[in-house]
Amino acid sequence: MEIVVPAEAAGLRLDRYLAEQAGSRAQASRWISLGAITVDGRKARKSHVLSGGEHLKIDAPTLTAEFAVEDGEAPSVVFEDDDLLIVDKAAGVVVHPARGHQSGTLSQALAARGAAGGEPWRAGIVHRLDKDTSGLLVVSKNDAAHRALKDALAERRIVREYLALVAGRPPSRGGTIDAPIGRDRRVRQRMSLESDNLREARTHFTLEEALPAASLLRVRLETGRTHQIRAHFEAIGHPVCGDPQYGHGNDYGLSRQFLHAAHLELAQPSTGAALSFDSPLPADLAAALKRARGA
To answer: Which helix (H) or strand (E) holds 166?
Structure first.
C-alpha cells in the first residue's frame, strides 16, 4: 500500500496517523519497528512527525486472515512477517497431528500458508495449546526462526500469560506453584504430581478478580509442560472451572475449561524488535465469567 500524506495530517506522529490502516496504534508501532513502513523511501521512527505530502509505503501483512481447519471455528492470523505468524486459536482446534487426530489440524493448515521449521509433521509449531484452550500461539515460517524461537522459549524469553477461572480462592493474591509433574501412574491421559517421570514445572499467578465462588487469575508459565496449568491448580485444590478431566465440567455453563492464552511477548527473531499481543476473552468464556460474577 502506498499513501500520500494529506496536508491536514501535518503535525501528527507517524504511528498515530497509521493507526487506522493498521487497526490500532500498537499494531502501527509494530509495523514501524519491523521496518515495514518507509517515508519518502527511508525507514522512520514511530515518533516521526509528519509534514504533509510525504509518500508512505506500507509493506505489512493483512490482519485477521482466516483459514480452514477440520474442527472448530477458523483461527485468525493476527500478525505475520517473513519469520513468524501469531495465531489466535479457537477452542476445539487441534494444534498438530497426534494419535486419533491425523488430519485437519492447525499445523497442517498453517503449512499451506507458509509455516516451516522444526519437524515436518508439525511444521512451524514452537509451542502448543490444548485442543480446548483458546488464544495466542507463535508459529515460525523458516528453520532459522524456529530455532531462534525455540531457544527463546527454552531460555524463558517468551512471555505467555493466560486467564484462568478457578474454583474457590487461592490462599494468597499471588504466588508460584513449583511442583514437578509427569504422566499420571493410573490415568495415562492426565498429568499429575503422582508420576514415575516427573519434570520440573513452575506456574506463577496473580488474582485478577475475586468472585463469590471462584477466582479469575492471570497465570504466567515459566515452564511449558503438557496440561501444566490444569494439573497445578488441581493439585492445590483449585481446579480450572469447566474442566472435566481435572475438575468438574459444566461450571457456569462451560463446555470446556476456562483457560485462554491472553497475552504474548517475544522478540522478532531476525530484528530483535519487541512484539506484544493481547487476545480478548472469547464469547463463551466472557459469558461464563458474567455468570460467575452473579453466582
So the answer is: strand 159-167
**Is 40 part of the annotated catalytic residue set?**
no
In terms of Cα–Cα distance, which of 210, 285, 282, 206 is closest to 251? 285
Residue matched to cell numbers 508501532: 29
Give me the catalytic one of 15, 81, 83, 130. Answer: 130
User: Phi/psi of residue 212, each to 5°?
Assistant: -55, -45
Residues 6+ apart with CB under 8 A from 282: 90, 91, 134, 260
Rounded-to-integer distance, Cα 289 and Cα 295, Å: 10
DSSP H helix total and E strand total for the chain:
6, 16
Task: Evaluate if pTM is beyond 0.90.
Answer: no
Half-sphere exposure of 140 (CA within 13 A, CB side): 26
Residues 113-132 have pLDDT tens digits of 778 888 877 788 899 898 89
Task: Name the average pLDDT for the chain.
Answer: 86
Question: What residues does 66 pair with on adjacent strands?
Answer: 76
**Which residues, 6+ apart, have CB-to-CB distance to 14 below 8 Å?**
28, 32, 37, 39, 44, 45, 46, 47, 48, 49, 50
| CATH number assigned to the domain comprising residue 241 | 3.30.2350.10
Whether residues 216 and 136 share a domain: the answer is no
